[in-house]
């Protein structure tokens, strides 16, 4: 069941959600597929917005996803997929019923807020779409693009109303005036331009910036225009005359986003210097600075920021997290994040109610699987957590780390029960026997054979080491439910059943025509499943060594196999060597019939105990249930 490739896949997984496609199965046989709440973006957040009533927050990022958050609980309600390149701009419609996203894939997309369903795609730009906004009445949409144009669209039909031409470089930001009669744009040509929305004619050009303009905004009364950009400044202009009113200086890097407070008395800016700043518009004085201190060196770029509709809160984004601030004091109200760094191994509790994640911050976290909220934190490791597992009854949790230890925890209290020490390298495999009395660990311990991996079998109650041995890099193994036997593979076409305590070979299984890549015990220990480079998986009697059945259908070598539903189902995965795409297949073990095929996986997967749900890592480093 556990192979080195599977563990490496799991260690790189980020807890996000993606709906997989099932084919070749009837509705009653097909596993239930659900979208699961996500913890965070897997790449940089580029844009944020509040809903009109302040109940929700919206974020878009370089992971091509759009996320809807509940502000009160900091949990993700929905993830929308559809863009094929990074999202650079997000916005709520004035009534909050729909959301808008703009992407490097040259499109804008309109989504239903309540369901997350795609309503409409706006196509016509020939370059990346950097910015998109609604008019105040919600009937029109304005977009700016790398094709040097602004475009105005009918929100209800998706039809292009008008194109605005005049910029000599990319249009990086756009805004409607409050009354909808004018459009504002800022570009890489260092100019701010104001247009007549009805005719598309240029009204005025504002010049003064010495580098590209990244963000623009109208004041709530429409009398002032605001711009920020690569020269590290914000500039406020008289919209009627084009005269510069004030320059705001204080950022030490490019200004990423600018906006007015709802009353127009303050200005908010976000910068690549990892800060957001609030300024007084009358005096130009800095009111306070919001420092994204929790992001540290993980934040290579800017901090997009936005005011809530009532002006009481500020939402800012770092690399992959959101922070809610009190606009009056600059105090942090809430962080929309999980681990302080990237998330590693992920596991599901036996009853499916909880999710376990480990991070580079050395912390193990327990989450509510239904709502995506953290329940408990397990602290003790001094380095990255790279492996985790639940006991069969869910009462205990096991973790392995770069700190060379594995640790046993109480799920209910988060208390450390025991530390197992003995590995001299990172511990990247941890596994309970089904009865919970034994623990198996695998580590990259230095030894005389650089291609060997050290495995250790422990008594879970006492923490005493039962046995230690080396296996080759290309190996797979599984522990019998009672922890007394091991099924292991090596370098040949066969695999072995061993006494777990002594390593004595009980039986050798032969029949595959090429190397065996993965092996697994059924839940009662009576059957063994094997997957091979010969593109087949085989079912064996553990006691007799007799071949029960061969499953054929994969077009490439099988990398992973696993039982589910008390041995009634089998899962296998393979990777197409040409495209790199992974395929999962679900089989009926009694008949050998194929039940379903799942495409888009990375090969790493785990069943829930009832066999109805499947936790899968996809090729783009996301997880799905």
In one word, what is the shape?
Answer: elongated
User: Overall pLDDT, averaged?
Assistant: 80
Q: Tell me the span between the first and last alpha carbons.
A: 19 Å
CATH homologous superfamily grouping of the largest domain:
YVTN repeat-like/Quinoprotein amine dehydrogenase
**Share of β-strand residues:** over 45%
Over all CA atoms, what is the radius of gyration?
28 Å
CATH architecture of the largest domain: 7 Propeller
The total beta strand count reads 56
Counting copies of identical and different chains, the oligomeric state is single chain
What would the CATH topology of the largest domain be? Methylamine Dehydrogenase, Chain H
Describe this structure in words.
There is one protein chain. With 625 residues, this protein is an all-beta fold. The chain folds into 4 domains: 16-38 and 476-625, 7 Propeller (Methylamine Dehydrogenase, Chain H); 43-123, Thrombin, subunit H (Beta Barrel); 126-336, Methylamine Dehydrogenase, Chain H (7 Propeller), CATH 2.130.10; 342-473, Methylamine Dehydrogenase, Chain H, CATH 2.130.10.10. It is 1% helix and 52% strand. It is built from 1 helix and 56 strands. Strands 2, 51, 52, 53, 54, 55 and 56 form a 7-stranded antiparallel β-sheet that branches. A hairpin with a 4-residue loop joins strand 28 (313-317) and strand 29 (322-326). Residues 1-39, 293-302, 338-342 and 619-623 have low confidence and may be disordered.
Describe the structure in brief.
With 625 residues, the protein is mainly beta. It contains 1 helix and 56 strands.
């Amino acid at each position: 069941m556990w192979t080195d490739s599977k563990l490496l896949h799991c260690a790189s997984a980020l807890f996000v959600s993606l709906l997989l496609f099932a084919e070749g199965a009837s509705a009653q046989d097909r596993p239930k597929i659900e979208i699961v709440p996500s913890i965070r973006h897997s790449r940089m957040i580029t844009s944020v917005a509040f809903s009109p009533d302040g109940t929700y927050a919206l974020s878009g990022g370089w992971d091509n996803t759009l996320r809807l958050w509940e502000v009160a609980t900091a949990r993700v309600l929905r993830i929308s997929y559809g863009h094929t390149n990074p999202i650079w701009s997000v916005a709520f419609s004035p009534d909050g019923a729909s959301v808008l996203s703009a992407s490097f894939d040259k499109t804008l997309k309109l989504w239903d807020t309540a369901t997350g369903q795609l309503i409409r795609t706006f196509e016509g730009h020939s370059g990346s779409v950097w910015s998109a906004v609604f008019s105040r009445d919600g009937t029109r949409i304005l977009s700016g693009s790398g094709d040097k144009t602004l475009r105005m669209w009918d929100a209800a039909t998706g039809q292009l109303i008008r194109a605005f031409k005049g910029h000599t470089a990319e249009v990086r930001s756009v805004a409607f005036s409050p009354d909808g009669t004018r459009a504002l744009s800022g570009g890489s040509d260092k100019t701010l331009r104001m247009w007549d929305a009805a005719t598309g004619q240029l009204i005025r050009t504002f010049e003064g910036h010495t580098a590209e303009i990244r963000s623009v905004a109208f004041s709530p009364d429409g009398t002032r225009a605001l711009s920020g950009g690569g020269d590290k400044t914000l500039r406020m202009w008289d919209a009627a005359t084009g005269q510069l009113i004030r320059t705001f200086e204080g950022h030490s890097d490019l200004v990423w986003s600018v906006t007015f407070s709802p009353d127009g008395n303050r200005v908010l800016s976000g910068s690549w210097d990892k800060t957001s700043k609030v300024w007084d518009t009358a005096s130009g004085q800095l009111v306070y600075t919001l420092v994204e201190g929790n992001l540290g060196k993980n934040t290579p770029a800017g901090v997009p920021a936005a005011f809530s509709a009532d002006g009481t809160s500020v939402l800012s984004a770092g690399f992959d997290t959101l922070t809610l601030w009190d606009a009056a004091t600059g105090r942090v109200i809430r962080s929309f994040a999980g681990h302080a760094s990237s998330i590693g191994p992920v596991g599901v509790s036996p009853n499916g109610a909880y999710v376990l994640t480990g991070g580079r911050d050395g912390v193990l976290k327990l989450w509510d699987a239904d709502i995506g909220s953290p329940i408990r934190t397990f602290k003790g490791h001094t380095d990255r957590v790279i492996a985790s597992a639940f006991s069969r009854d869910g009462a205990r949790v096991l973790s392995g780390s770069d700190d060379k230890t594995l640790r046993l925890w109480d799920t209910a209290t988060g208390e450390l029960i025991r530390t197992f020490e003995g590995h001299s390298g990172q511990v990247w495999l941890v596994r309970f026997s089904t009865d919970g009395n034994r623990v198996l660990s695998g580590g990259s311990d230095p030894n005389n054979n650089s291609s060997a991996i050290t495995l250790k079998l422990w008594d879970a109650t006492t923490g005493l080491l039962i046995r230690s041995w080396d296996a080759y890099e290309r190996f797979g193994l599984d522990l019998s439910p009672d922890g007394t036997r091991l099924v292991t593979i090596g370098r040949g076409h066969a695999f072995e059943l061993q006494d777990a305590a002594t390593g004595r070979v009980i039986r050798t299984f032969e029949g595959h025509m090429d190397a065996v890549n993965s092996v697994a015990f059924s839940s009662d220990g009576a059957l063994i499943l094997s997957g091979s480079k010969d593109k087949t998986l085989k079912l064996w009697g553990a006691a007799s060594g007799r071949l029960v059945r061969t499953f054929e259908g994969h077009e490439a070598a099988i990398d992973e196999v696993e039982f589910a539903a008390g041995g009634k189902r089998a899962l296998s995965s393979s990777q197409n060597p040409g495209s790199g795409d992974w395929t999962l297949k679900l089989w009926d073990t009694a008949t050998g019939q194929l039940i379903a095929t799942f495409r888009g996986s990375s090969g790493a997967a785990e069943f829930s105990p009832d066999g109805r749900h499947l936790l899968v890592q996809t090729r783009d480093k996301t997880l799905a249930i």
